[in-house]
Amino acid sequence: MKKITCMMCLLLGIVAVLWEPLRTTATTEGVTVTGAATATFAQGAALGSVALKSLEVGTGAFIEPDGTADGVYSVVLTGTTLLGQPRQIRIDGKVLSGEVAPDGRVYFNGIATMSLGDGTPAISGVPFNVSTTGNSMSLAIDSTSLPAAQLASGNISIN
User: Fold this and answer.
1) Which of 37, 55, 100, 111 could pair with 24 in a Cys bridge, judged by C-beta atoms 3.0 to 4.6 Å apart?
2) pTM for the model
3) Buried residues in 6-39 as b, exposed as e (16+ CB within 10 A)
4) Residue 119 DSSP symbol
5) Which domain holds residue 41?
């Protein structure tokens, strides 16, 4: 009986090792996210009272295996106000941490300065979160999550 129990434990241990999910590259080496691109939002995307149409992004960030990161993230959100006036909202951030999901999606976040483009002073210390696959980008600013924007030109590289 002891031999059967030992064999079953050994067999279960081998199966557990073989079924362990693959780790992402971020667990063994750093990941770099770089690029400059324009992207478009689906209808209905808004930040406050500004209906967003597109974004222009420039980023360069290095994500360490332990999740710390260093880099910059700059984006200009273009849209119109409720009165139909064009508006550009600028966000310039410092990337502080990030990770790579098993599906290859990269997540990073940090603290930014945001200019609403309406003549009011820029707001500093605004938290932001970004996720990207290289073909699309999702942005959350403070407590507002924007829908994914699909890249129209340029590229975002994940290496």
Assistant:
1) 100
2) 0.79
3) eeeeeeeeeeeeeeeeeebebeeebbebebebeb
4) S
5) 24-158
Query: Is residue 50 in some structural domain?
Result: yes
User: Is residue 125 in some structural domain?
Assistant: yes
- Residue spans of alpha helices (H) in 19-154: none
18 domain residue, yes or no? no
For residue range 88-131, list pLDDT tens digits in order. 999 999 999 999 998 889 999 999 999 999 999 999 999 999 99
Give the angle subtended at the CA of 115 by the CAs of 77 and 107, to the nearest 5°: 55
Is 1 a member of any domain?
no
Segment 32-90, tens digit of pLDDT: 999 999 999 999 999 999 999 999 999 999 999 999 999 999 999 999 999 999 999 99
Distance CA 109, CA 112 (A): 9
Q: Are 124 and 110 in contact (CB under 8 A)?
A: no
Residue type (1 letter), 94 = K
